[in-house]
Every structure is written in structure tokens, then in C-alpha cells.
Inverse folding.
């Protein structure tokens, strides 16, 4: 199959662009023109999806790569309590990218876009010098002054997470040694950005600090602690661990603590949060402390320092 | 020199970020938070800068790569008549990128940002699987309904260009065979986005259609003709050809017609435009026709079809 030329790629994108209320003028001009609701601030996030860094062609079907590519950006908007408004895709393909791959990639990306009513409003295309490189930009909005930052956590706030952790890293571990059926690892192959939960918390002013778990709980909790000038105490037993594989086995604590790309939300709150928000389970896993260190308490009451083992792509676990 | 880890790169970017009036919250959260002036629409553009596609390390000093990287985005905002508000950089580096290169790249990029009072407000960093990959996002604004599109050219409008053409392509031609001193090829090594000209035209409602010349006059004029449903007649002798090299020789007509990356503006207008706008020369090179074809008239009055020879990176001329 012939690789796509830049022009045919742009045409292809253009045909598949969905009109959206925020987009005044989309693909086909020097810039896209967007409208932001009055009284709203703008959110902008950009995220790379690079072949052999964020995905491997033999591991990830193109639909999965496209879906996850957009989800990375959506999840950042969710973590601010925002509403996604438009997406922009920069895509570089090398000479050996089959058209079928590109079609599958767009199917996945546009399926995720359609799930959130989001138009693909522009981007860039290029010939890559080797491998597939995508950069996704998601523009969102949030009422003035209402964005939930990482820096708002306060001493004695509870620490909460949505969903379950470690499922995505477990899939990668499995892929290193064999096959992983997408149905057995939904959070890796089909993560859904927690937009509704983020907005629910933002509208009620319930989250003092928030981040999405893209690098792993320990790393992302450290970001909140650093930006807020606080520490945290986490109960190992409270962390909701993903069930994966055809036997639905719970992942080990290490994967739940340090595994990345779950795209769940990690947030802090002075208030009690319901056990389910917008249909997604929410679990209290610990509390914010004045003392600026991170502590993990174990089942037997032992306390140890929670190490930050920032998850690195494909480096195993 | 050791390559930069992602974390130190983010720290480095953060230290160099300039506060800007549009940026409420910049690097260091899940998304940047921006404010757009009331009554303004938003402009968003993304552009790749890929090693061995858009630049070569042995040809382009890192400061030049950084400067040109941001200029690509700024030029798209200029072509809409907009005001740039914030920039976002996604940057992937491979293991053999020296810290000195990264520093130089940021020096160039931030120099261009500072020239236009633009903050670098966020982005992404990653380890690349090979080569340097950058994607620049520029967010701008324009009063509601005032963005100058490619689709507004009307029959009998004059066709205008800013500055001179072909200088950037001439530098590439020279680099293929030998050395090119940056001082001899300013439009290649140090192109300046025509923001002020674009805004001047937009405020006065003088430009009916506009695009920046990034792919070459013939290709970019075709974009205007296609989007506007018109044709054009260009006088070869009227095209301002760049003077390059230490003897300040005029480039050939082919480079001026088809050479890319000059980042000049190409626009159409029903009104007479001054010979100089915001300190930049403006030249009338032809007119828009009802008949949907592009014609080049030569010195002796001969007319031939203006071929679209979309300039391709590094393919020579």
C-alpha cells in the first residue's frame, strides 16, 4: 500500500472533520478560528505520541494508537475540571506507513473525539525521517478562575483516585513477554478520559488540587505535593488495584503505585466525596500532611517512604 | 555532554518561561490556562519542525532551528491578521542531543518569542526514538469575525506580496553544494513573521484573502484560488526577487515562484495598498480572475500556465 502524500492526508482529514460549535473555521486555513464562551478561560495541552516510545506497531492496533493519542490530551483537560472544545493533530508519517494504518489511526482518534463531541479542527502533516510521530493539542475551557490546579492541596485534605490503577502498566508487562488481549486490559487499550468526573468536581468546587495519573501514582502525587508545598500519607491497602487478564487478577501494589498511563484522576478535597461520581468509582487512599514527605502505610501499620518511581515508557516494571 | 532528561528539560523550560498577560497559569500543570480578550476569537496553529525534514544539524545552528520553529507558527497567525498570545512547544530529543544544542534551540526560540512579547506557556517533552522532533503551537486572537481567510479573494482584486521571495530556497540550494553564511541569507536563517503587516491589513479590512508563503508562491496562491473559487494572473517581472549571497545577486524567477519558507504574506485586495506597510515593502504582482486558472505573464507579453510546483523540503530546486 502506498504511503499517503501530505496533500491527500490533509484532504482525508478534512473530509472527516466534524463541525463543532466552538469551531468557526477549521482545517484549510493558516490557523483554525475558535470561539470560547464568554466568562471562560482557555485550557491548552499538547502531548506527543511517538512510535517506539509511546506505542509499538506490533503491540498496538492503529485504532488503539489513535484513541490513546487523543485520550492523553483529553485527560489533561479533565484534570483541570475543563470541557474539551477542539483538537488539533500534527502527524508525521514515514514512507512505510500503509494507508490502512493511517485510516485505523483516524478511526480510533475520531471515535474518541466523537465520544466527547469534540471536533478535529486542524493540525499539521509532514513526512517523517523515520517512524510515526503524532502531537495532539486539545483546547478546552473552564469558567474564569475555576480551573483546578495541582497547587491547591491543603493539609488534612483527603487524597482520592478515580477507577483502578496499574491496569495499563500490567498490559505493557504482559506485552513484553507475550500477547495481551485488549478485552483483558481495557484501561491500556481503551482508556476513557475522566472528563465528567473532573467537571463534576470543578462545578461544586470540591477538588482543591487535581492531576491525571499519566506517569504513575507516586510521580503524579509528588507533583501535587511539590506544587502545593505539602506531603501525603497513602494507605497501601486502600489503593484500588486493577483486575486484568482473562482471570481478572488484581495487579501487584507496585504496578498500582508506579504504573503509568491509567489516565485516572488523582485529587485532594477537604470534603467527603461520594463513592461514585458520574458513574466512576472514587476511592479515598490517604491524606495530605503538613510535613513535606510522602509516606506509604502498610497493612501491618508499618510506615515507609513512598518512593517516586516515575514510570518510564517500555522500560518494564 | 549528557542528554537532558525529561524532568531537567521541563525545569529548564520553566525557568525560561516569560510571564505574559494572556497566561493565567503556565508550565507546571496539566494544561495551561489562558485568557482571551472579550469579543475576540481564538486562532490556533500547529507546525512540525523535524530533523532532516525541516532542518539539518550540520546546516542549521540550534539558535536558527529554534527561531524558525516559532516563526512557522507566528507566520500562520500573521496570515489571519491576528495577534499571537502564547506558544506551546512539544520537544522530543534523542540520546545524542547535547545540552548545548538544546540551550541554543531555546535561545533562538525565546528570542523570537520575546520579539513579539509572546510567553512560552507549556508543551510536552519526550525521549525520541531517533532525531529531534519539535511541534510548535501558537495561540492567537483576532476580533470576532475579523480573521482574514484564504477564501475571500474576489475577481479583479489585486494580488500582493510582502518583502522578497526565493531567498530561503536559495539558501537551501547553496547549502546543498557548499556553505551559506547566515548574513547572506537572512530570510532563510532569520525570517521574521509579518505580524504587524497582517494586523495592519486586518484592522483596516483591506485584505480580502491572505496566506503566508511557506510552501512557495505558486502553491500558496493556488490555495487562495481554490478556497476562493477564482483564478489569478501574475506578472513574472513584478515578483520581488530576493537578493542573496555576498554579491547580493537576485535569485532566479523559479526560486521566487516556487521556493518555500520565505514566510512573507500573500494577500488580495480590492483597494490600492501602500508600497510599504509597517516598514515592510509590499508589491502588487497581479490580479484575481474569474476564470479558475493561474496564468503567468512574461516580459514579452507571453502568457503561460503558472505551474504549481509545491516546494518540497530538501528536494533541491
Amino acid at each position: 500500500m502506498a504511503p499517503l502524500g501530505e496533500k491527500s492526508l490533509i484532504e482525508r482529514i478534512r473530509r472527516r472533520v466534524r463541525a463543532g460549535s466552538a469551531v468557526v473555521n477549521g482545517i484549510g486555513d493558516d490557523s483554525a478560528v475558535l470561539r470560547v464562551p464568554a466568562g471562560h478561560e482557555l485550557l491548552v495541552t499538547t502531548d506527543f505520541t511517538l512510535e517506539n516510545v509511546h506505542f509499538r506497531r506490533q503491540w498496538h492496533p492503529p485504532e488503539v494508537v489513535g484513541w490513546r493519542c487523543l485520550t492523553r490530551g483529553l485527560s489533561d483537560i479533565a484534570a483541570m475540571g475543563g470541557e474539551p472544545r477542539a483538537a488539533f493533530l500534527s502527524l508525521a508519517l514515514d514512507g512505510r506507513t500503509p494507508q490502512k494504518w493511517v485510516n485505523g489511526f483516524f478511526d480510533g482518534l475520531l471515535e474518541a473525539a466523537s465520544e466527547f463531541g469534540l471536533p478535529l479542527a486542524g493540525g499539521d502533516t509532514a513526512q517523517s525521517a523515520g517512524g510515526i510521530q503524532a502531537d495532539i493539542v486539545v483546547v478546552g475551557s473552564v469558567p474564569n478562575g475555576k480551573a483546578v490546579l495541582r497547587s491547591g492541596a491543603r493539609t488534612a485534605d483527603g487524597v482520592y483516585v478515580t477507577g483502578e490503577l496499574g491496569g495499563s502498566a500490567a498490559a505493557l508487562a504482559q506485552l513484553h513477554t507475550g500477547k495481551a488481549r485488549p478485552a483483558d486490559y481495557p484501561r491500556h487499550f481503551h482508556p476513557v478520559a475522566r472528563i465528567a468526573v473532573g467537571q463534576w468536581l470543578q462545578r461544586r468546587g470540591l477538588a482543591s488540587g487535581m492531576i491525571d495519573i499519566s506517569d504513575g501514582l507516586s510521580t503524579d502525587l509528588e507533583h501535587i505535593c511539590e506544587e502545593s508545598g505539602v506531603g501525603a500519607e497513602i494507605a497501601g491497602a486502600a489503593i484500588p488495584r486493577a483486575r486484568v487478564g482473562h482471570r481478572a487478577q488484581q495487579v501487584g501494589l507496585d504496578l498500582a503505585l508506579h504504573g503509568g498511563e491509567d489516565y485516572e484522576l488523582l485529587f485532594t478535597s477537604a470534603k467527603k466525596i461520594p463513592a461514585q461520581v458520574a458513574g466512576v468509582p472514587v476511592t479515598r487512599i490517604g491524606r495530605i500532611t503538613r510535613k513535606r514527605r510522602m509516606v506509604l502505610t502498610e497493612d501491618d501499620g508499618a510506615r515507609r517512604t513512598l518512593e517516586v518511581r516515575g514510570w518510564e515508557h517500555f522500560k518494564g516494571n
